[in-house]
Write a structure and sequence with these properties.
heterodimer, A: about 525 residues, two-stranded antiparallel ribbon, B: about 525 residues, mainly alpha, 22 helices, globular, NADH_Q_OxRdtase_chainM/4 (chain B), NADH-quinone oxidoreductase subunit M (chain B), NADH_UbQ_OxRdtase (chain B)
Chain lengths: ~525, ~525
């Protein structure tokens, strides 16, 4: 039996490969899909969908096999540890849900199917690489790898101007952000002479004991850290760097929006936690205060903007910006408790967001997604199960108890209070109360508004789009706007949203265990 | 039997939820079956809860029927249930009122029956859970989710401006609850900082040592959450809307049970957790309580809508209960707890009668009624009893509670009590005047010519409440003997803290302040 954690394993390529095994599996499967696309008979149909699912399952399998090991690889630029195990799980789950959501989405749209799935696998593997990188260059490469896949996916609906517009905005602004990140890395390298996060950490740590440290390097370091933060904040879509988010979330195909809102955001938070805990925790500039302000601005802006939306997809896009603000609170709170809170929130967040996007896809199949929310009335009783599930996800996003959203919020709020951020929590709580309004507004429209007032009701839209409406109990499964894959996604998300809200203990354990492998918190 | 008694609280809490899950699988079209089944199940629930009453030991203030399981180790949160004399009767009230509310809505709820009965049963689970939990996180879970079914009930089956009322209801209470959550988390963290243990166990958190200034801030935060629920004077504006537009069953549950959570919260959480701050802020709260009493009563007098009148009378009555609780003498707190039950019974009954009037004539305006006593003598007689019970006629339940509250508070806060007493006179004015305009005089509205008397089902609905009014009015000792040990213990804690508080004041030279 190989001792995987033996010293210097990172200098041997075959052992290094072990450290990227889950990613490598995905990449292999992505290539398989691409190659099989050459054959006409395989290209059409659902083969690539199933291969993508199998790829993700295999990746899970390797993750499970390796989960008890800590492996360094590629000359110390990659690390696979407990922290990665958690994030890989979350990212793979997000990818799994995305693939499920995509199943029938492109049926009516003229796009290349196998390439789509291979791109999704590529971007998932890039997210995983990103989380496990500990070298600034490696981080940059992974970000680029992830982003390029995401740019293409955003503009995947050929000929739809909104999709192209979203991809264009995302691409141009994303390039800027990457440039910021690279520039920041350069400054940090200039100040410390290292690119490896451990070594940077050790360098600053040693510097901080010296009586007369070099002023120059200090300034460089501060500039570098600020630029690095800008680059990462863009991917996390924090407030002043969020401008691309609504348009590209809105324009992208909805499964891709789900991937961007869950997977990419989770990966960005993952790497941010790694970078932040290792090199920001020194009091070079007061980054805790900067993040404090960013968090407050992000959640306030996200909620205010979401309040003004009448389009469901945009509303959820803005609300996911607001959620990033809450997630950031855990990082600001810091420490074992705060970081595990963040991780738990991220896990809760992917399920409620994926569930909500599943419903959005259902609405799109009914030609309702870009319809004003005001015309949703009658939906609640026409589709009781769908509407109930949707209400549950909305309540979870609003942070009402019994849902995972409450437990996540409770966790990060208590962590922030523990670290003494009373005002931050107070503002966040006011924000939650405020945010509840627009989530509740949708529920109101689905259940409580009478049909007489407006002619353009959902019932009419349904009649126009020739969807047969059965009055039976389990109608949603029979109808053609609901595919079995969508039902699986929604049921999975419902189960986990409830489970994380009522019996969070095993998930908290999982999150807490992975935090212990961060060596500096 | 012993296992049944050991887990009786869990059984009582989750029985309605399981019933609701069962009803999910019944066809939507079978409305009669759904109604009957839900009513029978809620009756069964009430019968189970009577076991609590039978096996309750009345000679101790300790929590009984305690259940404790590990829940979230990371936060030290446990599944910790237990009841004392106060929560015992609130639980009984909840199970009884849910049964009555379901029974009362056979005619009123015509659409979406399935959703209605399921929501009522889910609501019952969460109300019971909130009354029985001794773990703050568990309590908060039950407490806040409770809003959601109620919100649906008002918003879907309500009348008039139902959406406005439902949204106002949920936003007010949600904002209050969230600010309360802030306070609760702070206490939780404070306890951790002092002991190094995360715990949500209420009994342990009672021993948290909170500095006075922080106590005041936290008390205000938690006060907001509970005061909105009660509702105390400046926070009451959601109540008339919610009450007026809700369906009868919703109003009954809202008045009988949901409003009690505010008082219960003060009794169980706010005052024992922050005793010094509550002693310090007592005058402020008493002023608000007295304003609530008088304002609620005066506004009731001028109401044209029957349901709005009863809703504002709730504000007034809840003011009495707050007065009794914050006077913090054994007698007045006894009275408050008893009056919580009484208010649930009398106001619930009043809403039921208003609902019956509305079902018959589809109007709630007092001016549209008149002379109904001749057409419906049984209705008039039973309605009269409910009105007199609310007014506080000796021999009926309302008198006992109000008398205890006023006697208990008089010694401590004479001026406040005198003002509060005037509220009783106003209560008599608006309720009796309303009754006269509705039931006596001549029939002015032609629609009321064919006014029908109560059916057997309707009599069955209100009969338990009428009987309880007499029973509590004539022999309140059955309740008081079980409430009293808990209340005495509560008052002892406060007295002990008063002593400590006076020491602090003396030390800080605040005696003249």
């Amino acid at each position: 039996m190989l001792d995987l954690s033996q010293m210097y394993s990172e200098y041997f390529l075959e052992k290094s490969l072990l450290s990227v095994m889950p990613e490598a599996v995905l990449i292999i499967f992505a290539f398989i899909i691409l190659l099989l696309g050459l054959f006409k008979s395989i290209k059409n149909g659902e083969n690539s969908y199933y291969i993508a699912l199998i790829g993700i399952v295999f990746s899970f399998l390797y993750l499970f096999i390796l989960s008890n090991h800590t492996i360094h690889g590629f000359y110390g630029s990659i690390i696979f540890d407990k922290f990665d195990v958690f994030f890989f799980t979350v990212i793979l789950l997000s990818g799994f849900l995305t693939v499920l959501l995509s199943k029938n989405y492109f049926d009516t749209r003229n796009v290349l199917i196998p390439e789509y799935y291979s791109l999704v696998l590529f971007s998932i593997s890039a997210m995983m690489l990103l989380v496990s990188s500990v070298n600034l260059i490696m981080i940059f490469l992974s970000i680029e790898f992830m982003s390029i896949a995401a740019y293409i996916l955003t503009g995947y609906l050929k000929g739809e101007s909104r999709s192209t517009e979203g991809a264009m905005k995302y691409f141009i602004l994303g390039t800027f952000a990457s440039a910021f990140f690279l520039f920041g890395s350069v400054f940090i390298y200039a100040a410390t002479g290292h690119l490896n996060l451990y070594k940077i950490h050790n360098f600053i740590f040693r510097q901080s004991f010296k009586v007369h440290y070099v002023y120059n390097s200090h300034t460089f370091l501060a500039i570098g850290l600020v630029l690095l933060l800008v680059g990462l904040a863009f991917k996390m879509s924090l407030f002043p760097f969020h401008a691309w988010t609504p348009d590209s979330y809105d324009g992208a195909p909805t499964p891709v929006t789900n991937l961007m809102a869950t997977g990419i955001k989770v990966a960005a938070f993952g790497i941010f936690i790694r970078v932040f805990t290792s090199i920001y925790s020194f009091n070079i500039l007061n980054f805790y205060n900067i993040l404090w302000i960013l968090a407050v601005l992000t959640m306030t802006f996200g909620n205010f903007a979401a309040l003004l939306q009448t389009d469901l997809k945009r509303l959820i896009a803005y609300s996911s910006i607001a959620q990033a603000g809450y997630i950031l609170m855990g990082i600001i709170a810091g420490g074992y408790y705060g970081i595990s809170g963040t991780l738990f929130y991220l896990l809760a967040y992917i399920f409620m967001t994926a569930g909500a996007f599943g419903i959005v896809i259902m609405f799109e199949n009914l030609k309702l997604a870009s319809v004003d929310i005001k015309s949703y009335y009658g939906f609640g009783f026409k589709y009781p199960l769908t509407a109930a599930a949707f209400s549950f996800f909305l309540l979870s996003l609003a942070g009402i108890p019994v849902t995972s959203g409450f437990m996540g919020k409770f966790f990060v709020f208590s962590a922030a209070i523990k670290s003494g951020y009373y005002w931050l929590v107070f503002i966040a709580i006011l924000n939650s109360a405020f945010a509840a309004y627009y989530y509740i507004k949708i529920i109101v429209k689905m259940y409580m508004v009478d049909n007489q007032s407006n002619n353009n009701s959902i019932a009419d839209v349904i009649n126009n789009s020739n969807v047969t409406v059965n009055n039976g109990q389990m109608e949603i499964i029979k109808e053609n706007h609901v595919t079995s894959a969508l039902v699986i996604v929604i049921i999975l998300c419902l189960i986990f949203t409830l489970l994380l809200g009522v019996f969070p203990q095993p998930f908290i354990n999982f999150a807490a265990k992975s935090v212990t492998s961060l060596w500096n918190i | 039997m012993s296992i049944f008694l050991k887990y009786i609280l869990s059984i009582i809490i989750f029985f309605p939820l399981l019933s609701a899950l069962m009803l999910v699988f019944i066809n939507k079209k079978a409305e009669g079956l759904l109604r009957n089944l839900a009513t029978i199940l809620s009756l069964a629930e009430f019968v189970i809860s009577i076991f609590l009453f039978i096996y309750f030991k009345s000679n101790t203030y300790q929590f009984q029927f305690v259940e404790r399981f590990s829940w979230i180790r990371e936060f030290g949160a446990t599944y910790f249930l237990g009841i004392d004399g106060v929560s015992l009767f609130l639980i009984l009230l909840t199970t009884l009122m849910t049964f009555i509310a379901l029974l009362s809505s056979y005619k009123y709820i015509k659409e979406h029956v399935k959703e209605f009965v399921i929501l009522m049963l889910v609501l019952e689970t969460f109300m019971l859970g909130a009354f029985a939990s001794l773990d703050i996180l568990l309590f908060y879970l039950f407490w806040e989710f409770m809003l959601i079914p109620m919100y649906y009930i008002i918003g879907i089956w309500g009348t008039g401006r139902k959406v406005y009322s439902a949204v106002k209801f949920i936003l007010y209470t949600l904002a209050g609850s969230l600010i309360m959550l802030f306070g609760l988390i702070t206490i939780f963290i404070l306890h951790y900082n002092q002991t190094g243990n995360f715990t949500f166990n209420l009994l342990k958190l009672y021993h948290t040592n909170i500095p006075l200034t922080l106590q005041i801030i936290l008390f205000i935060a938690i006060f907001l959450g509970f005061a909105v629920k009660i509702p105390l004077f400046p926070f009451h504006t959601w109540l008339p809307d919610a009450h007026t537009e809700a369906p009868t069953a919703g109003s009954v549950i809202l008045a009988s049970v949901l409003l009690k959570f505010g008082i219960y919260g003060f009794f169980r959480f706010a005052i024992p957790l922050m005793p010094e701050a509550s002693i310090l802020l007592t005058p402020v709260i008493l002023v608000l309580a007295v304003i609530s009493i008088i304002y609620g009563a005066l506004v009731s007098i001028v109401q044209k809508d029957l349901k709005r009148l009863v809703a504002f009378s709730s504000v007034s009555h809840m003011g009495f209960i707050v007065l009794g609780l914050f006077a913090m003498t054994a007698v007045s707190v006894d009275g408050s707890v008893l009056q919580m039950i009484n208010h649930g019974i009398s106001t619930g009954a009043l809403f039921l009668f208003v609902g019956m009037l509305y079902e018959r004539s589809h109007t709630r305006l007092i001016a549209d009624f008149g002379g109904l006593a001749k057409k419906a003598p049984i209705l008039a007689a039973l309605f009269m009893i409910a009105v007199l019970s609310s007014v506080g006629l000796p021999g009926l339940n309302g008198f006992v509670g109000e008398f205890l509250i006023l006697v208990g508070s008089f010694k401590q806060y004479t001026i406040f009590t005198i003002f509060a007493t005037s509220g009783i006179i106003f209560t008599a004015v608006y309720l009796l005047w309303m009754f006269q305009r509705v039931m006596f005089q001549n029939i002015t509205n032609k629609n009321n010519e064919n006014f029908k008397d109560m059916t057997l089902r309707e009599i069955m609905t209100v009969l338990p409440l009428i009987l309880l009014m007499f029973f509590i009015g004539l022999y309140p000792d059955v309740l008081l003997s079980r409430i009293n040990p808990t209340v005495v213990h509560f008052v002892n804690i406060i007295e002990h803290n008063k002593y400590a508080y006076n020491l602090i004041k003396a030390k800080m030279g605040l005696f003249n302040a």
